[in-house]
Every structure is written in C-alpha cells, then in structure tokens.
Amino acid sequence: MAEVRAPQSPPRRMTVAVTSGEPAGIGPEVAIRAAWALRERVNCVLLGDAAFLAMTAQAIDPSIRLVGLSPQALRNSGLPHFADGVIAVIDCQLAAHVEAGVLDVRNARPVLHTLDLAIEGCKAGWFDAIATAPLQKSIINDAGVAFSGHTEYLAQKTATAQVVMMLAASVDYRDSSRPPCAADSGAAAPSMLRVALATTHLPLKDVAAAITPASLAAVLDILDADLRNKFGLAQARILVAGLNPHAGEGGYLGHEEIDIIAPAIASAQARGIRASGPYPADTLFQAKYLRDADCVLAMYHDQGLPVLKYASFGRGVNITLGLPLIRTSVDHGTALDLARAGLGHADCASMIEAITIAAAMAATRIRHQ
C-alpha cells in the first residue's frame, strides 16, 4: 500500500523592506519596478513617501497597486497580509516637494528615517531583510548629519563594532575563445563572484594604517561566518589580495604582506577558515583562480570593486556582512541625470538582484537557525 503523505505547504515568501532612497534620483523608480516584478516571489514592502510613490507608480504602470500604511499602525498591529498583487508602502513623509534630478536638503532627514524604520522593522520581526535604493551622501551631510554611507550608518545604528562590505554578481567564467569542455558544464557556469573589502570608504593615504592583524582577523571571521550562515556555504574558500603591487614583491615593494596580511591568514587557517594568500591583485582576478573560490578579500575599495563592476555593472549587489540583520543594495548611485530625463531611463536589474539575494539570504539564515 502506497504511503500517504500530507501535502506540504509552499515555503512562505520572505518579507523584504525596500527603502526608496534619494527621492530626486532613480531610487523610487527602480524600487517600485523591482518590487512589482518580484511580487509573486518576494513580499516587498516599500519605505518612502506613500503619496509620492503612488504618483510615481501610476506614471510607470497604472496596473501597479500600492497600499499605504502608517508607521504607527505597523507598531500597533504589525504588518498585515497582502495578496501577491499588492505592494505595501510604509509612509515616511517627505518635507519638501520632489523635483526629479534636483536635491533638496529638507528631504535628507526624512530619507534617513526610512533606514531607521527598516532597522526597527527587522528587530520587531516585521521584515526578514532590507534592500536599499541609493542615497546621495552629499545632501545628507549638507543637512548636518555626518554620513559616509549605508554600511557605516547601519553599523552605528545596530551597535555593530565591525562590518564587512561585499559586492556580489553572477559572472560566467567560461572562456568563449575556446571550445566548451566537461569542466564548463553544470553549475560551474555562471558562478557568483563575491568581492569583500578589508577597508571601506577611506582615503587611499589612510588604508595601510587601517589594515592591522586585529582588523583582518575580524573581517575574516565575519566573512567566513556569514558565507556559512547567510549563503549556505559549508566551508567558504577565500582568496586574500595583497596591499602592495605584486603583493609586496617579497618586501621590496612594502612589508604589509609579510608583517600583517600573511600572519592574519595563517591565524585564520588555524581557526578553521579556508583563507589563502596574499596574492597579487593585478593577476588574482582571473577565471582560473576565481572558479575555485567563493570570495575574494580585497584590501581597499578601488582594488576590488572596479573589477566586479566592470564585469557586472547594473547587475551587482552590495551586501553588508556582520550586521544582526540582512542588508543588500544596488551597485549604482542616485543617477540624478537619468531621473531628470524622466521615467523609463533607469534599469532596475540591480535592485531586482538585491531583493532576490536578500530574500535568499534570509531563507538560508532561517534554515540555519
């Protein structure tokens, strides 16, 4: 007699808070487009000025359905259930009228409030993750708020001592100049290229001093832990770049590799982390090395990110590791010039990837828990 099994309910959709970013830029458009495109797969909740987002949505596509909620209603009753064809908007009202492509310092603090509410929502259990549209750092600083980026702001607001900035993108490592072989088949292509940073938004003159044995140990620990717990990689393989040209050329071009980076790698290996290096950054980003790696750790912003953005601009995702919550973002800026040109010029591919990866990371973390 055949075994009778109870039907399994489908896995619940992850709920991702999507902040709409600088209202004068392309953030509101790409957030709306991406949330609507993913409405059957991810429960996206937009955070921004409800009236402004509703007006923008109608101009994009009259069939887009948004429903506004006040932050207080959310605090009183939690996030209600909505059907797949409806996108919820948590109303964070702006202080000034929005003119596309024109920054207004009066809207800087309300925009930051969307981040604060997203953090609150993750702590309260309303959201499983956050995906952020781009902000304009200059206008936030002009408003009197010291702001160097989402990464640092989220770390401060969650009292996280150390975070790691990582960008990820799907990249095909196959060489189109040669015939395909067995190694090219299956899941090996395309692969996920992940580039993490030992330092983030620092002037180049300050980078060397910021790289210490303690800081590298913390970065490698966070990287290894989040690659396991949020990406489901049982034992992540991390390739570590050197700081100097040719990884210091045996000490002739700098001693950071010998004195700091190599000992930090050895210490990480002793803790069970599969890190190796330091490797010369100018030759590290080759398919023959990257095929067998899960992540590259670059020493500074413009050492690793130009390579990833060249390979995948408009499809990459910025991920903040080490936080008590999951946060992803687009790999581009506010693009005020595109916003000024009107709706329809912005590409929402990076936002779709950011939301998709945030939801996948949240599901993986739940399984691990």
Largest sheet: 12 strands, mixed
Sequence stretches where pLDDT stays below 50 over 5 or more residues: 1-7, 175-189
Average of per-residue pLDDT values: 90
Q: What is the CATH H-level superfamily of the largest domain?
A: Isopropylmalate Dehydrogenase
If classified by CATH, what would the architecture of the largest domain be?
A: 3-Layer(aba) Sandwich
What radius of gyration results from the CA coordinates?
22 Å
Helix content: 25-40%
Number of helices: 14
Percentage of residues in DSSP E strands: 15-25%
Description:
This protein has 369 residues and is of the alpha/beta class. It folds into two domains: 15-160 and 323-368, Isopropylmalate Dehydrogenase (3-Layer(aba) Sandwich), CATH 3.40.718.10; 164-307, Isopropylmalate Dehydrogenase, CATH 3.40.718.10. It is 38% helix and 17% strand. The protein has 14 helices and twelve strands. It has helices at 27-37, 50-60, 71-77, 108-124, 137-142, 150-157, 207-210, 213-229, 256-270, 281-284, 287-290, 301-312, 336-341, 349-368, and strands at 15-19, 43-48, 66-69, 87-91, 129-132, 164-171, 191-197, 237-241, 274-279, 295-298, 317-321, 327-330. It has a twelve-stranded mixed sheet, sandwiched between helices. Helix 1 (27-37) crosses helix 2 (50-60) and helix 8 (213-229) packs across helix 9 (256-270). The longest helix has 20 residues, at 349-368.
Topology:
Layout (H helix, E strand, L loop, with lengths): L14 E5 L7 H11 L5 E6 L1 H11 L5 E4 L1 H7 L9 E5 L16 H17 L4 E4 L4 H6 L7 H8 L6 E8 L19 E7 L9 H4 L2 H17 L7 E5 L14 H15 L3 E6 L1 H4 L2 H4 L4 E4 L2 H12 L4 E5 L5 E4 L5 H6 L7 H20 L1
Parallel strand pairs: 1-2, 1-5, 2-4, 3-4, 5-12, 7-10, 8-9, 8-10
Antiparallel strand pairs: 6-7, 6-11, 11-12
